[in-house]
Amino acid sequence: MTNWYVITGGPSSGKTTTVNMLSELGYATTIEHARHYIDLQRVTGRTVSEMRANQVEFQRGVLEMQLEEEAELDPQDMVFLDRALPDSLAYYRFLGLEPDPRLLQALHEVSYRKIFILDLLPLAPDYARTEDIPAQKRIHELLTEVYSSLPVPVEAVPVLPLQERTEFILNHLK
């Protein structure tokens, strides 16, 4: 088993804000790969709508980044992940796409210490987020289903002010 903790939840649940707070407190963290993929593609001149028009390519690009990152992390290091491989399966299901075989294989090998699923905050659209409220809720449900199917403890994190939410996670690591 790794010493990795996954911070996840539907769009606009405060994942990245929470992970950034953990980083500021000195904990090792990762980035959210969907947003990073979008940012890298935007540098080349592609728009978000162009990227989202080919969801298979988009999901594969994000998956590739996630696979690479998790392969490079030391299993002994305590790390908070801003999303993880199982998030990809939830998104493939949400989009009605056949999951990439590499994802399915990797899901048999994943090992996380604990999963923290953040309760949803009000949807806050931005340049990278295209979901509406029904999509936000459905993605959150799918993430909960996917992670609950794994042999890993799952903890729901209630809506709290940022510092209290971060303390909640730190107080529930075991």
Automatic annotation (TrEMBL):
Coiled-coil annotated residue ranges, if any: none
Residues covered by the NadR/Ttd14 AAA domain: 5-165
InterPro entries reported for this sequence: NadR/Ttd14_AAA_dom, P-loop_NTPase
UniProt name for this protein: AAA family ATPase
Species for this entry: Nesterenkonia alkaliphila
